[in-house]
Every structure is written in C-alpha cells, then in structure tokens.
Amino acid sequence: PMPICPVQENVLQRVLQLPVVSSTCETLQRKYSSTKESHPLMASVCEVYERGVQGAGALAMWGMEPVVRRLEPQFAVANNLACRGLDHLEEKIPALQYPVDK
C-alpha cells in the first residue's frame, strides 16, 4: 500500500519542495527581482500589484474561512489522494528530484 500523507503534510507544500519546482520558482523570483531593480517604473507598477494581490488574498481567505472549516474533512481526503498521486509521480518520474538545469 502507498503511504498516506501525515496529517500536517500538505500536497502543495510537497510540490513546492520538489527540486524541479523550487528551482523554477527561484529562477522566476530572481528574474522578477532583477526586472524590478532595472526598471523603476516597472518596480512601482509591481509594488501596486503586489499590495493589491495581498489585500485581495486576505479578503478572500477571510470570506472563505467558514466554508473551508465546513469542508475540512473533504479537503483532508483530497489532500491524501493528491499525496498518493504525488508519491506515484515521484516514483515514476525521477527527474522531479532534480533542479531544472539538470
């Protein structure tokens, strides 16, 4: 039988920790930061956008909290199924364990 994700484990956290995903995110973050540093106008636009996204995200989470609480058992089942699927993918696709440049 495939291992079940521990309760505290989150499939999104697992995906973000895969070397291929984390190295891609780091590369994108570096490019985003260097673009902001190189172009002052772009930096101000990006900062306005970032503040808007943070505000919208906080508002959405506040509004969704009661729904999330009610659906928590279903989320736990979906998370376990997704973790099992990720276990299978990691087993079948070893390249997921390497950074993008490899």
From TrEMBL:
Keywords: Lipid droplet. The keyword Ribonucleoprotein does not apply. It is found in: Lipid droplet. InterPro entries: Perilipin (IPR004279), PLIN1 (IPR042998). One of its GO terms (cellular component) is lipid droplet. GO terms for biological process: lipid metabolic process. The keyword DNA repair does not apply. It holds the Pfam family Perilipin. PANTHER family: PERILIPIN-1. Belongs to the perilipin family. This is PLIN1 protein.
